[in-house]
Amino acid sequence: MVECQNFEFTRGLLAYFRLHGNGKVEKLKDPKKIPRKIPVSNSKDFDHLPSRIGITGSPATGKKSVGIILAKLLNLEFFSINDFAIDRGIGKWKEEDFFVDVKRLRGSIETKNRIVSGHLLPYLVPNRDLDLIFVLRCSPDILRKRYESRGYSERKILENIEAEVVGVIEAKCLQEYDLRKIAEEDMSRIRNPKS
What is the set of domains in the chain, with CATH numbers? Predict the structure, then answer.
């Protein structure tokens, strides 16, 4: 697991989700308990919360659920890369899958005052455009159940599980982003607020 230098902020947010994984934002008793000072290497401390947050991970790890809740908590806009690409037709459908045109989208996603979510985040959004990146991971057994409930084909299930086991997205994040910005979290024990 990567140690995020924004550890106080990260622990505060993730502790909230551990305690309140049901997605009910109103259950947070005191939002002031989320630390306001965030240590950043080679820079003075922020006196505010990060306003450019990325959330990535394999499909069904909870990116959208966590992102929507975080956006409400932090008063930021939630932005789904996949939803945006599909709505704008920036890619192509092949059988059951939509393939995003990464070349067309790369570097063009606005991140200010946003939580940007998607498994393609490290392929599309450069290091300079994000303050904090959450990499969500999940047990392959749990992912298989989630994929089956989504109606994924066996081929798609195996491809996604293999990518999670090998850590494809985590490896790309480690390659693209400053290590001090990355926080990895195992979402295996977190219930999806929609379920």
Answer: 7-186 (3.40.50.300)
